[in-house]
Design brief:
Blueprint (H helix, E strand, L loop, with lengths): L1 H27 L1 E3 L9 E2 L8 E2 L3 E8 L7 E5 L4 H7 L20 H10 L2 E11 L2 E8 L3 E8 L1 H8 L11
Antiparallel strand pairs: 1-4, 2-3, 4-5, 5-8, 6-7, 7-8
Length: 171
């Protein structure tokens, strides 16, 4: 009798722990990002310098303090990719990170396909928004924009344990 009770207790504990971990990863740590007009969507100009704001609307974003790469944003812009490409730095990042399924405006698979087929273009937004993490902004031909955080070379080295070296900024 005691064995059945302990087995049931162990199974229920595992189910609650698994459910709790799932909830925390998918829902628990995320929060809506407050709108900061003129600062939410910025792009890095060609040749460097401070990131410059672009015109945008319908801004929606989420972030979490638990990880620097959980940021996702969606917006609309009236600027064309051709106009932006002449002024701002392009990014070689072509694989956006997945967003939680409940953040419906950000479809990483569709955005990745658009980046691959050329109907979307990726730009560098902010370098080292957090140590070793850059913000990437992608704009589609239809004027939809998406932003996410991506590890840069310093971040990859730092997080995999290899020596960072002098080329990377100080923490």
């Amino acid at each position: 009798m005691m064995g059945k009770f302990l087995t049931i207790l162990l199974v229920l504990s595992a189910l609650f722990a698994g459910g709790g971990m799932y909830y925390l990863q998918v829902y628990g740590f995320y929060k809506d990002v407050a709108l900061e007009p003129g600062q939410d969507v910025v792009l890095l100009p060609l040749g460097g310098g401070a990131p410059q704001p672009i015109a945008y609307g319908d801004f929606e974003a989420i972030d979490a303090d638990s990880s620097p790469i959980r940021y996702r944003a969606c917006f609309a812009t009236t600027l064309s990719v051709a106009e932006l490409s002449q002024v701002f730095t392009l990014s070689d990042k072509r694989a956006p990170r997945n967003a939680p399924h409940w953040f419906e405006c950000f479809d990483a698979a569709a955005l990745g396909a658009a980046l691959a087929d050329g109907t979307a273009t990726a730009f560098t937004s902010i370098k080292n928004v957090s140590y070793g993490v850059d913000r990437i902004v992608a704009i589609t031909d239809q004027g939809r924009g998406y932003a996410w955080h991506e590890l840069n070379e310093c971040g990859k080295k730092s997080y995999d344990g290899t020596v960072v070296g002098e080329a990377c900024p100080k923490r």
